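Sample intake sheet
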Amino acid sequence: MSRLLILLITIFPCTVFADELDTGDTAWILVSTALVLFMTLPGLALFYSGLVRAKNVLSVLMQCFAIACLVSILWMVLAYGLAFGDGGSVNQIIGLGNLMISDISIGSMSSLAPTIPEIVFFMFQMTFAIITPALIIGGFAERMKFSSVLLFSALWLILVYAPVCHWVWGGGWLGDKGFMDFAGGTVVHINAGVGAIVAAVVLGNRRGFPDMPMTPHNMALTVAGASMLWVGWFGFNAGSALASGNAAGMAMAVTHISAAAASLAWMTCEWVRSGKPTVLGIVTGMVAGLGTITPASGYVGPLGGLIIGISAGVVCYFATQYIKRVLKIDDSLDVFPVHGVGGALGCLLTAVFYSNSFGGLQSADEVYSISSQFGVQAIGVVATVVWCAVITFFILKLVDMMVGLRVKEDEETEGLDIVLHNERGYNI
């Protein structure tokens, strides 16, 4: 009998060890990790750098690159443990332990992703932690000191991102309430959007805004970056299934449908109102569609993806107009109306389109109430907005006291590339 068991193990190793390690799942999450990092470097970096004026192109690229480096180290040293560690008596609020990822060994598996090595899960989640503070750059572009950017990003990762991540995905109170956020509607997009608009208000508008035109200096860079974001987002959403199966496939499909629908919806709104469709409009609509479908991507079907995408294009377009033209807040690259509003909208619509009545992925035997789940989603959205707004404001004031937030007026006029980095993006 023992010889027979040994023979079976030799012939069918994947079957025997399926609950411990799945090489297919591992390979998919390795690819997804690379795709999500690709979203920041070079995707977001190029997208943002094309949107600013030529005198600030390098400053944006530098900020994205430096944040990627800084967050990677902080994630290893402290933030991963805060987000996904066992907090014991305070686990509803924050995780603890696992400093320097000391609890991760070559053979350790994550309870949250039992078919892949924990070090792979650690790396996948690191890429989420990288892109979130990088998104906030768009709220204060062209006017914050580089030293302040680094200090703010470090504190924000620890005090805002890690706690919300733990609430939703790490065993915290929102997850326990049944809050649905598949790939980061609250953790990434609402957090980044709220952080950006608070930063925009605290720093104040750029010199000349809104009277002086501040048009993007290189739309080719922006389109290239946007295209990279679209491709990388498949790792973002489909990778969040943490396995290579049906859930990942559906998440990829609805992500693409939503992005396409939102692009056309935003373009149409702009075309009707201004008479001409713009490249900036169609790519911004795409980003809005991607951000809005993110929390719902693992819960809805193609119909939900289509309606969420159309809703994202229309709602985020008018939110952008309202922030810029009515409130006159200089959220330089529209982070709040695109990511903040989009993330909140997606979280709320998840409750609706998860229902099998609307083609969602609700199981046939699952008792589900749209109204009840909508209430849970609303609680999660409000809690994230309040926490992020209050703590971000506190961090900005602290950074201002320590090193100052904003460059001098003459330095802003000259451009951050020369003033902060002694380099030019273009020497022609």
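Comment: The radius of gyration is 22 Å. Residues 370-403 form the longest helix (34 residues).
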